[in-house]
Every structure is written in C-alpha cells, then in structure tokens.
Amino acid sequence: MLRSDLVVDLEPHLMVDYDDDDGIDCDQTAADVARFLIKQKCEVVRSCAIVTEVCAGTITPIVDFDLRPTVGSDTDRGVADIGHLILSTTAAGKVMFDEVGQGTVLEPGEEVVVQLITAASGVGPTGHFIPYLQVKIIPETQANLDDTTETA
Question: Tens of pLDDT along 114-131?
C-alpha cells in the first residue's frame, strides 16, 4: 500500500477533574491528565502542547507523553518515550514540542498517556495547555493488526 507523508493531529481525551475551558490546568497535583487512544496504525512525528494560559511559577510545568502498550494498563508503560515537554515560563499561544518519539510505530489497542510530572508551583503558579500528538497514518490491512478482531 502507498503511504502518505501527510501529518495529522490526534486529539486528546482529557481526564475528568484536570481540565477546564482553557485546557489542562498546570497548577494542580501531578497526575495522568489526558490520553490518545490509538485507533489505526501510525508513526509518531512529534508530541506537542499549545499553551493557552501563560505558564509561570517558581517551579514551572513538565509534561511527559508515555506509551502504554495496552490501553488502560500500566504494565510495560514507557516513561517519556513519546515526549518530554518542559513548559518553562511560556506565553499563551506558544507551541512546545518534542521529537524524541519520532519514528515510533503505534498500533490499535495502544495508547499514549499525557502525564503532568511537575506542577507549576511557588510564587505565581499558572498555566494551561492542550496536548496533541502529530502522526503519519500507516495504511494496513485490518487482518494484520494483532489487537483487532472481527466479530460475527
């Protein structure tokens, strides 16, 4: 099958209690804050976050994108293997990105989890962001995907 060089953005599923109208709040307890459910075979280009409120504080936010080989399971979960974003003191409207996971092939049944590793804290902690994952779709016959099953 022919393959495209077109890059597409995967939209996140934001976790309840960690988001609001501006995206994910950076001055809260560190936790898993979003995830990308992989529905088709694709190759990672870069992990990104668009800042929607200035990130600030004595300690500024750090965000990881971790690969989970099985949706919902932390068994063999990676650590920043898809991305590691240091948001620093960053103005709203800036896009932060990392290409550490570039070339990683993702398949249906896997997920990428966005984890707030370090929350904004100290003097004047602020910040919101919306994560996204840029990928190239890899055409594949459904029967060749290990974690997909046709039902009767």
Answer: 999 999 999 989 999 999
In sequence order, which residues have a C-beta less than 8 Å from that of residue 77 and are 6 or more positions away? 66, 67, 68, 69, 113
Domains of the chain with CATH codes: 7-139 (2.60.120)
State the Cα–Cα distance between residues 92 and 105, nearest whole angstrom: 31
Angle at 97 between CA 111 and CA 115, to 5 degrees: 40
Helix/strand/coil (H/E/C) assignment for every residue in 29-97:
CCEEEEEEECCCCEEEEEEEEEEEEEEECCECCEEEEEEECCCCCCCCCCCCCCEEEECCCECCCCEEE
CA 18 vs. chain centroid, Å, equals 14
Alpha-carbon gap, residue 147 to 105, rounded angstroms: 14
SS3 call for 112 = strand
pTM (two decimals): 0.91
Point out which residues pair with 85 in neighbouring strands. 63
